# Entry
Amino acid sequence: MSAPKFKNPIVRWIDYRLPVFTFMQHELHEYPTPKNLNYWWNFGSLAGIVLVIMITTGIVLAMHYTPHTAFAFDSIERIMRDVNYGWLIRYVHMNGGSAFFIVVYIHIFRGMYFGSYKSPRELLWILGVVILICMMATAFLGYVLPWGQMSFWGATVITSLFSAIPVIGDWIVTLLWGGFSIDNPTLNRFFSLHYLMPFVLVGVIVLHIVALHQHGSSNPIGIDTKGPQDQLPFHPYYTVKDLFGLGVFLVLFFFFVFFAPNFFGEPDNYIEANPLQTPPHIVPEWYFLPFYAILRAFTADAFIYWPISWLMSAKLAGVLAMFGSIMVLFVLPWLDWSPVRSARYRPLYKQFFWLLFIDCFVLGWVGANAPEGHFVIIGQVATAYYFGHFIVILPLLSLFEKTRPVPTSISEPVLGGGGVTAGATAKPREKA
Amino acid sequence: MASSADTAATGEQDQEEGGARRDFLILTAGVFGAVGVGAAIWPLVDQMNPAADTLAASTTEVNLEPIKVGQRVLIKWRGKPVFITRRSKISIDDARAVKLSDLVDRQSDEDRARNPEWLILVGVCTHLGCIPAGTKTGELRGEYGGWFCPCHGSHYDTSGRIRKGPAPKNLEVPDYAFLPGNKVIIGKSQAEIDKNKSKVAG
# Structure
């Protein structure tokens, strides 16, 4: 593709030396996108915008926040009461964290449903999992900063996970803490890393987008585009669609910011951290609940623990399972090698997809409740099913599932005819 | 975008799928978007302004009782130095004898010190923000017996007015008001205090 001609001479002068405008023209304007993308394909760009909102509000909050155990809690209260619009900026940042996870979880489930992780997009998917891990680290570090009770005890629990590692576990925990408990050195480094991580995230996202643009978006049908008749330029067709989705998102988002800003939060975090008292019921933020349930599922008497009980303690098994629940996503493209991407043409996979979806909510529900009574066994079954889906069901489906015939072209399901000729008539109308 | 004549034509007879409606939509959407972006950016800018607690701490009260005639004291107000001088008769006469036409920044001493005995100045050189010397005993006071800025050599007189050197303006006189009990409040004018009083009374 030759460099596009720009009318503006200054643009031309710059572009000749530094082809940023050509780059934007190619990647944001002409970038050929399958013409059948539905609204589930909005969530990638939406996640990018949420990240921008988070970085902007975060930089602003850092101007007023004091990362010291004696001042952190009060500095947050000062932001809420005294700093001009501090309440708004903090509530946007707080709810932005939750919104980020909602958007990204939908993005991930979309990828699973439509088989977006399959060849040639395995690395794109893997980079996405790296992004998820970075996000989780960032969210965890950020949640500690207000230095409330949940901040403190959440940090204690999560850092103590590393004590499950044999031999060097305790040494690692001391290293993370910079002392013998969560204290001022911990808060300082968490603040530093919380500020760093979003920029790491930006770097990985750039790679994610490079990998995406190499082969272009997948699509709801899950077959490759066969040429220009199957594609639309990204601008204005998908910029407008993304913009509309953004509008809907912002309405919902600001409903929470203005009318229910603490909906996703825990009231206990408005009590200053007290290292001598654990709150009666500690829970992580909602987006960690399923993982928390997996962690707690491994008790000494759990049926999912006894096959490995000769190998490790239940504590270590829980920690490994929790990390493993994300790690398993890395190998997803090789656990599911069915040549059909989209669940639309995989009747069995579609049902198992929704079972996994429900299973994640069950895990979240278990994670939100105290580990007592029937929650214990439900959590263990749900955990077993989660891993069973990836390790047993997906390979079996890849082997035995009878898939439905996929259309020969993107246009076919709509027009009922051959792709090439029908696509020509579906060419976007000239502007009036 | 269509010309205004075009707009008028299609506006009257709504027959063709004209540019008018599309122009209107693009324009209103654009304006709406611009207002939204502005509304989003303003809080991010305004948060850098002084916060409510900073503003609340923006006045300082000083007890004038221990300050003797001829003495200069340095106090801190809004993080800046303020010079409070109880001037001697000679200093006052010096300041008031100067012809306005001899000054760089023409201001009479009567305007700068309503109570001639008390001169209250923000101790920040109007050139580039250093603290002029002359408040503490033994410091240089410059050629006019007031203050002398060591950074770039600005000379101020006994009314704190610039007389020589690169500074463009006289030392600033902050808002202040004398309070009962021989005190002064800096950061609030007499007018503001009267206004608050009438509010409480009303």
Q: What stands out?
A: Residues 1-15 of chain B have pLDDT under 50 and may be disordered.
